[in-house]
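BUG: 3D viewer hangs when loading the predicted structure for this chain

Environment: internal workstation, default settings.
Expected: structure renders.
Actual: progress bar stalls at 90%.

Input used:
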Amino acid sequence: MANLQEDSNPDSRLILTAENHNTDLHNEKADTPDSGGPGGCRGWGARHTVVVMATLGLFIDYMLQTVLAVTIVAMVGQNATREEVEGEVCPLPEGHNATQEIRAGVFAWDERTQGLIQGCFYYGCALMSLPAGRVAETCGATRVFGAMVAAGCLLCLLSPVAAQTSTYLFVALRVTQGAAVVRHG
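Structure tokens produced before the viewer hung:
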């Protein structure tokens, strides 16, 4: 039984002795997940998991944002126009073949269409910044962040089908993808 002393104050509070107090603290500490007790690893808590997941989510968001800038080169192919160089130019060595093979891409998008496709991602970001923040206030930021990263990834998987179907469908998908991957900063 615990050694209890009654205080001489009129409120008559109960005080635990130092011996029982240390034992109770030791028992409480052993059951916390951060303490290496039965519930988890020593030093690894929920906050560390959130940090790792948020880092991976931001990495995925950045990849979804920039992947089209790299892949559009192969999607469109090389441009057949050549710029004429004026002035003195270093001559090619003898025996060098000056002709280049022009690779055609799958899509015949001009530069304006390519710019629209790449830029429409940011229209979605601008449209959803405030509504996504409000939803994060009510539902919790980690849930909203995870759902938006998952939605952005699913839309990325649908982008080849949308691009082959219609340019306008691909633009709409990129706007939606931008809405799902709201800029974080």
